[in-house]
Write a structure and sequence with these properties.
The chain is of the alpha+beta class and 168 residues long. The protein has a domain of 78 residues: Nuclear Transport Factor 2, Chain: A, CATH 3.10.450.360. The protein is 22% helix and 35% strand. It contains three helices and nine strands; from the N terminus they run H-E-H-E-E-E-E-H-E-E-E-E. Strands 1-2-3-4-5-6-7-8-9 form a nine-stranded antiparallel beta sheet. The protein is elongated, with a radius of gyration of 20 Å.
Length: 168
């Protein structure tokens, strides 16, 4: 009986472990992506042909891919209109425009550790998100325009992901 209970517990623990590996993305097959979206992606990124993962996120089709030495997510609406591209810059401050580097260095958060940097390009604007942290305080998200203007300074919260509809 103890042996049965042991195997049951191990099986349940394994199922919980495997379930926790789910990244909550709604991955979809290429065949489920509208042709207008695929064509728009190929026109915008003509040199990308392999290792593209598609997902559906908040009503948008999102292509996750490697391009120009960076991981990118390109967002398209169902009609194939490009709405946004997110580029993961890691923690590389030198990838930021000098004005953004200077603005961060001159900010009240200059001693905080930069945990992640992303660049967002949309049809009407481009901005940078610096996720920062320090011991004993809540993590923060700093949004900068390319000229170093701070657009938003906010406490980091679950579910506050940037989408094409994010406004400042």
């Amino acid at each position: 009986m103890k042996k049965y209970f042991y195997y049951l517990c191990m099986g349940l623990a394994g199922m919980l472990f495997l379930n926790s590996c789910d990244d909550d993305d709604d991955d979809i097959r290429l065949s489920d992506v509208p042709q207008a979206v695929v064509s728009a992606f190929e026109a915008k990124y003509p040199n990308v042909s392999t290792n593209i993962e598609w997902e559906k996120n908040r009503g948008y089709y999102v292509a996750d891919f490697w391009y120009e030495n960076s991981i990118k997510d390109a967002w398209f609406d169902s009609k194939g209109t490009w709405r946004m591209t997110e580029t993961d810059l890691g923690t590389n401050m030198s990838a930021l425009p000098e004005a953004v580097q200077t603005a961060f260095t001159n900010s009240q958060y200059n001693t905080w550790r930069v945990d992640d940097i992303d660049k967002y390009e949309r049809p009407a604007d481009t901005f940078y998100l610096l996720e920062i942290e320090t011991k004993g305080k809540s993590d923060r998200n700093l949004y900068f325009a390319p000229d170093g203007t701070i657009l938003k300074d906010a406490k980091d919260r679950d579910g506050d992901d940037v989408t094409p509809d994010t406004a400042f």
